[in-house]
Design goal:
Layout: H1 2-19, E1 23-29, E2 39-40, E3 43-47, E4 50-61, E5 67-76, E6 78-82, H2 84-90, E7 99-100, E8 110-132, E9 136-141, E10 163-169, E11 177-178, E12 185-192, E13 209-221, H3 233-255
Antiparallel strand pairs: 1-13, 2-5, 3-4, 4-5, 4-8, 5-6, 7-13, 8-11, 8-12, 8-13, 9-10, 9-12
Length: 256
Protein backbone atom coordinates (compact mmCIF):
# COMPACT_ATOMS: atom_id res chain seq x y z
CA UNK A 1 0.00 0.00 0.00
CA UNK A 2 2.82 2.40 0.87
CA UNK A 3 4.53 2.00 -2.51
CA UNK A 4 1.18 2.40 -4.29
CA UNK A 5 0.57 5.72 -2.54
CA UNK A 6 4.07 6.94 -3.38
CA UNK A 7 3.66 6.17 -7.06
CA UNK A 8 0.16 7.66 -7.12
CA UNK A 9 1.31 10.90 -5.47
CA UNK A 10 4.35 11.10 -7.75
CA UNK A 11 2.07 10.83 -10.75
CA UNK A 12 -0.07 13.68 -9.46
CA UNK A 13 2.95 15.89 -8.80
CA UNK A 14 4.35 15.23 -12.24
CA UNK A 15 1.00 16.08 -13.77
CA UNK A 16 0.98 19.38 -11.91
CA UNK A 17 4.53 20.13 -13.03
CA UNK A 18 3.61 19.34 -16.61
CA UNK A 19 0.69 21.78 -16.56
CA UNK A 20 3.11 24.55 -15.56
CA UNK A 21 4.54 24.46 -19.07
CA UNK A 22 1.16 25.18 -20.68
CA UNK A 23 0.12 28.49 -22.18
CA UNK A 24 -2.05 30.88 -20.19
CA UNK A 25 -4.71 32.54 -22.35
CA UNK A 26 -5.07 36.17 -21.27
CA UNK A 27 -7.56 38.66 -22.70
CA UNK A 28 -6.85 42.36 -22.25
CA UNK A 29 -9.75 44.82 -22.26
CA UNK A 30 -8.04 48.05 -23.32
CA UNK A 31 -10.88 50.17 -21.90
CA UNK A 32 -10.18 48.81 -18.43
CA UNK A 33 -9.30 51.52 -15.91
CA UNK A 34 -9.37 54.32 -18.52
CA UNK A 35 -11.96 57.12 -18.28
CA UNK A 36 -14.25 57.52 -21.28
CA UNK A 37 -13.22 60.42 -23.50
CA UNK A 38 -9.82 60.87 -21.82
CA UNK A 39 -6.47 61.16 -23.63
CA UNK A 40 -3.12 59.77 -22.50
CA UNK A 41 0.41 59.46 -23.85
CA UNK A 42 0.37 55.77 -22.86
CA UNK A 43 -1.84 53.27 -21.04
CA UNK A 44 -0.54 50.67 -18.58
CA UNK A 45 -2.32 47.38 -17.83
CA UNK A 46 -1.39 44.41 -15.64
CA UNK A 47 -2.33 40.77 -15.11
CA UNK A 48 -0.44 39.44 -12.12
CA UNK A 49 3.25 39.96 -12.84
CA UNK A 50 2.67 40.53 -16.59
CA UNK A 51 2.47 44.15 -17.75
CA UNK A 52 1.31 45.74 -21.00
CA UNK A 53 2.00 49.31 -22.12
CA UNK A 54 0.07 50.66 -25.13
CA UNK A 55 1.21 53.71 -27.10
CA UNK A 56 -0.07 55.28 -30.33
CA UNK A 57 2.16 56.10 -33.34
CA UNK A 58 1.80 57.80 -36.70
CA UNK A 59 4.06 58.98 -39.54
CA UNK A 60 3.52 62.69 -38.86
CA UNK A 61 7.07 63.75 -37.92
CA UNK A 62 10.05 65.12 -39.76
CA UNK A 63 10.35 67.65 -42.57
CA UNK A 64 8.68 65.26 -45.04
CA UNK A 65 5.91 64.15 -42.66
CA UNK A 66 7.15 60.55 -42.79
CA UNK A 67 8.92 60.01 -39.47
CA UNK A 68 7.18 58.16 -36.64
CA UNK A 69 6.13 60.03 -33.53
CA UNK A 70 3.67 59.46 -30.75
CA UNK A 71 0.05 60.41 -30.93
CA UNK A 72 -2.41 60.72 -28.05
CA UNK A 73 -4.42 57.67 -27.04
CA UNK A 74 -8.13 58.43 -26.65
CA UNK A 75 -10.51 56.08 -24.88
CA UNK A 76 -13.95 55.63 -26.47
CA UNK A 77 -15.51 52.29 -27.34
CA UNK A 78 -11.94 51.07 -27.67
CA UNK A 79 -8.73 53.04 -28.04
CA UNK A 80 -8.16 55.57 -30.81
CA UNK A 81 -5.17 57.69 -31.83
CA UNK A 82 -5.14 61.43 -32.35
CA UNK A 83 -1.96 62.17 -34.29
CA UNK A 84 -0.24 65.53 -34.68
CA UNK A 85 -1.78 66.40 -38.04
CA UNK A 86 -5.29 65.57 -36.87
CA UNK A 87 -4.90 67.74 -33.80
CA UNK A 88 -3.73 70.65 -35.93
CA UNK A 89 -6.60 70.24 -38.39
CA UNK A 90 -9.65 69.20 -36.37
CA UNK A 91 -8.50 69.07 -32.71
CA UNK A 92 -9.14 65.31 -32.59
CA UNK A 93 -12.82 65.56 -33.45
CA UNK A 94 -14.75 62.40 -34.32
CA UNK A 95 -14.06 60.28 -36.30
CA UNK A 96 -10.43 61.39 -36.72
CA UNK A 97 -9.62 60.42 -33.15
CA UNK A 98 -9.77 56.76 -34.23
CA UNK A 99 -6.82 54.80 -35.55
CA UNK A 100 -7.13 55.67 -39.22
CA UNK A 101 -5.63 56.21 -42.65
CA UNK A 102 -8.30 58.68 -43.72
CA UNK A 103 -5.84 60.72 -45.76
CA UNK A 104 -5.66 58.04 -48.46
CA UNK A 105 -2.41 56.77 -50.04
CA UNK A 106 -0.55 59.96 -49.14
CA UNK A 107 -2.09 60.22 -45.68
CA UNK A 108 -0.86 59.14 -42.25
CA UNK A 109 -1.06 55.61 -40.90
CA UNK A 110 -1.86 55.10 -37.22
CA UNK A 111 -0.70 52.03 -35.27
CA UNK A 112 -0.80 50.88 -31.66
CA UNK A 113 2.44 49.60 -30.16
CA UNK A 114 1.88 46.90 -27.54
CA UNK A 115 4.91 46.53 -25.25
CA UNK A 116 4.76 43.54 -22.88
CA UNK A 117 7.04 42.91 -19.93
CA UNK A 118 7.93 39.52 -21.43
CA UNK A 119 7.61 37.78 -24.79
CA UNK A 120 4.05 36.68 -25.60
CA UNK A 121 2.14 35.32 -28.56
CA UNK A 122 -0.74 37.51 -29.71
CA UNK A 123 -3.59 35.23 -30.79
CA UNK A 124 -6.41 37.66 -31.61
CA UNK A 125 -7.65 41.25 -31.54
CA UNK A 126 -11.05 42.92 -31.62
CA UNK A 127 -12.26 46.42 -32.42
CA UNK A 128 -14.98 48.12 -30.43
CA UNK A 129 -15.94 50.52 -33.26
CA UNK A 130 -15.18 51.13 -36.93
CA UNK A 131 -16.19 53.55 -39.69
CA UNK A 132 -16.04 52.97 -43.48
CA UNK A 133 -13.69 50.00 -43.21
CA UNK A 134 -11.34 48.25 -40.79
CA UNK A 135 -8.46 46.60 -42.62
CA UNK A 136 -5.64 45.88 -40.18
CA UNK A 137 -1.89 45.21 -40.32
CA UNK A 138 -0.12 43.30 -37.51
CA UNK A 139 3.66 43.18 -36.98
CA UNK A 140 5.94 41.60 -34.36
CA UNK A 141 9.49 42.56 -33.38
CA UNK A 142 12.00 39.70 -33.58
CA UNK A 143 15.16 41.63 -32.75
CA UNK A 144 17.17 41.81 -29.53
CA UNK A 145 16.59 45.42 -28.42
CA UNK A 146 15.02 45.15 -24.92
CA UNK A 147 13.47 48.64 -25.12
CA UNK A 148 12.63 49.26 -28.76
CA UNK A 149 11.77 52.89 -29.60
CA UNK A 150 9.83 53.85 -32.75
CA UNK A 151 10.73 57.55 -32.56
CA UNK A 152 11.97 58.91 -35.92
CA UNK A 153 11.70 55.51 -37.61
CA UNK A 154 9.76 55.05 -40.85
CA UNK A 155 7.09 52.40 -41.41
CA UNK A 156 8.96 50.95 -44.39
CA UNK A 157 12.25 50.91 -42.47
CA UNK A 158 10.81 48.57 -39.85
CA UNK A 159 10.99 45.70 -42.32
CA UNK A 160 14.80 45.90 -42.28
CA UNK A 161 14.94 46.51 -38.53
CA UNK A 162 13.89 43.05 -37.32
CA UNK A 163 10.13 43.57 -37.58
CA UNK A 164 8.09 40.81 -39.22
CA UNK A 165 4.70 41.20 -40.87
CA UNK A 166 2.44 38.75 -39.07
CA UNK A 167 -0.52 39.42 -41.34
CA UNK A 168 -2.87 41.85 -43.06
CA UNK A 169 -6.55 41.35 -42.26
CA UNK A 170 -9.41 42.69 -44.38
CA UNK A 171 -12.84 43.75 -43.12
CA UNK A 172 -12.27 43.00 -39.44
CA UNK A 173 -15.21 45.25 -38.40
CA UNK A 174 -15.91 44.51 -34.71
CA UNK A 175 -15.32 40.76 -34.99
CA UNK A 176 -12.68 38.93 -32.98
CA UNK A 177 -9.93 38.30 -35.52
CA UNK A 178 -7.49 35.41 -35.11
CA UNK A 179 -3.83 36.28 -35.72
CA UNK A 180 -2.45 32.74 -36.19
CA UNK A 181 1.30 32.99 -35.66
CA UNK A 182 3.89 31.12 -33.61
CA UNK A 183 5.96 34.28 -33.02
CA UNK A 184 6.58 35.28 -29.40
CA UNK A 185 7.68 38.86 -28.87
CA UNK A 186 7.66 41.68 -26.34
CA UNK A 187 6.72 44.25 -28.99
CA UNK A 188 3.73 44.17 -31.34
CA UNK A 189 2.15 46.66 -33.74
CA UNK A 190 -1.57 46.61 -34.56
CA UNK A 191 -2.89 49.36 -36.81
CA UNK A 192 -4.62 50.40 -39.99
CA UNK A 193 -3.71 48.44 -43.09
CA UNK A 194 -0.57 49.81 -44.73
CA UNK A 195 0.28 48.52 -48.26
CA UNK A 196 3.97 48.76 -47.33
CA UNK A 197 3.34 45.63 -45.25
CA UNK A 198 1.81 43.55 -48.04
CA UNK A 199 -1.12 43.25 -50.41
CA UNK A 200 -4.63 42.15 -49.43
CA UNK A 201 -6.83 42.88 -52.45
CA UNK A 202 -7.92 45.73 -54.71
CA UNK A 203 -10.73 46.76 -52.36
CA UNK A 204 -8.21 47.68 -49.67
CA UNK A 205 -6.50 50.30 -51.84
CA UNK A 206 -9.02 52.94 -50.74
CA UNK A 207 -7.28 53.24 -47.37
CA UNK A 208 -10.29 54.71 -45.65
CA UNK A 209 -9.89 52.58 -42.53
CA UNK A 210 -11.01 53.83 -39.12
CA UNK A 211 -11.29 51.71 -35.98
CA UNK A 212 -10.86 51.71 -32.21
CA UNK A 213 -8.98 48.79 -30.70
CA UNK A 214 -10.84 47.21 -27.78
CA UNK A 215 -9.38 43.79 -26.95
CA UNK A 216 -6.21 41.78 -27.42
CA UNK A 217 -5.78 38.13 -26.49
CA UNK A 218 -2.40 36.50 -25.91
CA UNK A 219 -0.75 33.20 -25.02
CA UNK A 220 1.65 33.68 -22.13
CA UNK A 221 3.95 30.64 -22.14
CA UNK A 222 4.72 29.63 -18.57
CA UNK A 223 8.00 27.75 -18.16
CA UNK A 224 8.53 25.16 -15.48
CA UNK A 225 9.97 26.84 -12.36
CA UNK A 226 13.50 25.96 -11.30
CA UNK A 227 14.66 23.55 -10.07
CA UNK A 228 11.70 21.34 -11.02
CA UNK A 229 12.17 19.84 -14.48
CA UNK A 230 9.28 19.39 -16.87
CA UNK A 231 8.54 15.63 -16.96
CA UNK A 232 9.21 13.78 -20.18
CA UNK A 233 6.27 11.87 -21.65
CA UNK A 234 8.29 8.67 -21.29
CA UNK A 235 8.59 9.22 -17.52
CA UNK A 236 4.84 9.67 -17.23
CA UNK A 237 4.32 6.49 -19.26
CA UNK A 238 6.63 4.48 -16.98
CA UNK A 239 4.76 5.69 -13.91
CA UNK A 240 1.51 4.67 -15.54
CA UNK A 241 2.83 1.17 -16.24
CA UNK A 242 4.09 0.97 -12.67
CA UNK A 243 0.70 1.83 -11.25
CA UNK A 244 -0.99 -0.68 -13.55
CA UNK A 245 1.43 -3.40 -12.42
CA UNK A 246 0.77 -2.67 -8.74
CA UNK A 247 -2.96 -2.81 -9.32
CA UNK A 248 -2.69 -6.20 -11.05
CA UNK A 249 -0.53 -7.54 -8.22
CA UNK A 250 -3.09 -6.44 -5.64
CA UNK A 251 -5.87 -8.21 -7.57
CA UNK A 252 -3.87 -11.46 -7.68
CA UNK A 253 -3.28 -11.32 -3.92
CA UNK A 254 -6.93 -10.72 -3.26
CA UNK A 255 -7.90 -13.88 -5.24
CA UNK A 256 -5.33 -16.14 -3.51
Amino acid sequence: MGMYKILRNSMLLLGLSSSAANADIISWDLNEGINYGSYHASNLYSRGDLFLTVTGWSDTGGANDNKLERGALGRWNGLGICNDDEYAQVHCASPQHAADSEGGPDGDFDMFMLSFSEAVNVTSFQNGWYHHDADVSVLAYEGSDPAYDLTDKEWEGLLTDDWSVVGNYADTATNETAVNTNISSKFWLIGVYNPIFGFIDDLCKEQNDMFKLLKVTIDDIVDCPEPVDCPEPAALGLLGFGLAGLAAKRRRKAKS
